[in-house]
Structure formats: structure tokens, C-alpha cells
Amino acid sequence: MKTVSFTPTDLTLEPYPVASGRLTPGTEINAAPLWEREDGSEVGAVWEMTPGVLEEVQGNEAFVIVSGRARVEFPDGRVLDLGPGDGAFIAPNDPCRFVTLETVRKVVVFRLT
Questions:
Q1: What percent of the chain has pLDDT over 70?
Q2: Hey, which residues does 105 pair with through a beta bridge?
Q3: What is the CATH number assigned to the segment(s) 13-103?
């Protein structure tokens, strides 16, 4: 891992793979990796999603919204309404769906293990 400086709005993003059936047809997710722990346990990235729904999000991530608006919906009725400058931590194994209302760009850390 190296120390980096970046401007989230200036990064060029590449398509981010999502399993079939989890994403609203026509919705796009793109990302730019920033760093990865040597043991592969965490990844930092800039992540962007056009309007739509990403199903079966399992959590274990922390992020700050740079631009756009989104809603995180949980099966127990909890809802997080998020916009620019808002941050969130989604706990491991706290399933939810990520609903993008306006194209969202966020800086995120995913815990993979």
C-alpha cells in the first residue's frame, strides 16, 4: 500500500463487476481502486453508480458521498437518506439495498474478510 492523494471528482473510473440480477437493468457501476491491503483484507476506492438499485449489499463498508443522492434500505425498515458530504458505515452482515436517486460518487473502504 502506498500513500496517495486524489481528487474524487477527477478520477477516471472503470466498469465494476456486479453479479447478474443484483442491479437494475441499464444501471452502471464504475470504480477506481485507490489502494489494497497487502493481505487483501481491505480495498479503498472511488465508486460511482447511476440511478437504480443494487440488491443484496452485505455491508462491511464505510463511505462518504461526494456527489449525488442515495437511499440505503434495510429489511427491518431502517432507511438512510444520503447526499453530498454524508458518510455511513454499513455493518458486516447487515443486508440492505442501495438505491441511487441521482448518480452517486463516493469514496469507500470495503472490508473483504
A1: 99
A2: 48, 67
A3: 2.60.120.10
As to burial, measured by CB atoms within 10 angstroms (0-12 exposed, 13-18 middle, 19+ buried), residue 41 is exposed
Is 52 in contact with 26 (CB distance < 8 Å)? yes
Q: How many residues does the chain have?
A: 113
Beta carbons within 8 Å of 15's beta carbon, 6+ residues apart: 28, 29, 30
Give me the DSSP letters along 21-39.
TSB-TT--EEEEEEEE-TT
pLDDT for 113 beyond 80: no
Do residues 64 and 85 touch, judged by C-beta distance below 8 A? yes
Measured between alpha carbons, how far apart are the two ends of the chain, in Å?
17
User: β-strands 96-111, 14-15: how paired?
Assistant: unpaired
Evaluate if residue 1 carries a pLDDT over 70. Answer: no
The residues facing 42 across adjacent strands are: 111
